[in-house]
Design goal:
The chain is of the alpha+beta class. The chain contains eleven helices and 14 strands. The strands form three sheets. The protein has a seven-stranded mixed sheet, sandwiched between helices. The protein has a four-stranded antiparallel sheet with strand order 1-2-3-4, covered by helices on one side. α8 packs antiparallel against α9. The longest helix is centred in the middle third of the chain and has 15 residues. It starts with 7 loop residues before the first strand and ends in a 7-residue tail after the last strand.
Length: 300
């Protein structure tokens, strides 16, 4: 029977294990991507195990353990064991980040389960061509801001490489001073996550671009392929001194990745009103909806 002792902490050396499993079962939500897991390790204390060719992920935030649905070929015995563990936890929602495909299977096999949408964790997914071309009247305001940025600032782009990685780290330190990361727990944890990603950029096999203005790095985007048809943008940061710079880094990233994928996943909004407004303004093609189940509603 599955127990807490079966789970081990995720380490960078486990990347090949996740890669091998995800080659068969690509992650549908950005929170399952290995880069996300390892970069946010200090905050969420990710652990994992395997059971009958299913990957099972557990998090522990402020000593509150939560379980993700098994990743693999759906197996009722495996789900029974995971939900039995979840039922024992004190967390209000110990079983979550359940995508719609898995939810539909659970509804058929566990008709008494009740699901709650976790809106702040819905991923925003866009057509890469839409973000690269900004077509039609829906994107008029964004095109206007972008054109103003292009008129006002002569910028260049380049890929993230060993030659500019140290400059990027310096830029990110400046970005956190601008945003006063230390005063906001979410930003402080994001800072730790992105600095970890940059420290292990090449080991994680990430990609990215920068925007330079007057020779200085003033914006970055970090991304990777999460499935055969989708790139996930993990981080996008820009200097507050250049109005429209986020429009610039966004379109430059999209123009680059549309050559290899159909979709761009730009991760969730974490319930932040300003971020939600910005993400909605780009007209997502679809959302990756996720749900969680309250402890009292776990009925096997």
């Amino acid at each position: 029977m599955l127990s807490i002792d079966d789970f081990t902490p995720v380490t960078l050396e486990d990347k090949h294990i996740f890669d091998k499993h995800y080659a068969k079962y690509p992650p549908l939500h950005s929170d399952y991507v290995f880069t996300t897991i390892i970069s946010w390790m200090e905050y969420a204390n990710y652990h994992f195990t395997f059971l009958k060719d299913n990957l099972i992920v557990m998090t522990s935030v402020e000593n509150s353990r939560r379980f993700r649905p098994p990743i693999g070929k759906h197996n009722k015995d495996v789900f029974n064991q995971v939900m039995t563990l979840a039922k024992k936890e004190s967390s209000e929602y110990p079983f979550g980040v359940i995508n719609k495909k898995t939810k539909d299977w659970l509804v058929q096999n566990y008709p008494k389960l009740e699901f709650t949408p976790h809106r702040e964790y819905f991923d925003y997914v866009y057509l890469a061509s839409d973000l690269a071309e900004l077509p039609g009247s829906d994107y008029k305001k964004i095109r206007n801001r972008l054109n103003k940025f292009i008129r006002n600032y002569a910028y260049t782009t380049e890929k993230i490489s060993e030659g500019n990685i140290d400059e990027i780290k310096t830029f990110l330190q400046r970005w956190c001073l601008w945003k006063d990361c230390a005063s906001d727990p979410l930003l402080e944890n994001e800072k730790k996550a992105i600095m970890y990603s940059m420290a292990h950029f090449f080991e994680l096999e990430l990609s990215g671009i920068v925007i330079r203005i007057d020779g200085n790095i003033e914006a970055i985007a970090v991304y990777e392929k999460m499935s055969p048809d989708t790139v996930v943008v993990h981080y996008e940061k820009g200097s507050p001194d250049y109005d429209g710079i986020y429009k610039g880094i966004n379109i430059e990233t999209a123009k680059l990745v549309q050559k290899e994928v159909t979709f761009i996943n730009r991760e969730p909004d974490m319930g932040l009103p300003g971020l939600r407004k910005a993400k909605m303004s780009y007209r997502p093609h679809h959302m990756v909806e996720v749900f969680h189940v309250a402890r009292q509603n776990i009925v096997l």
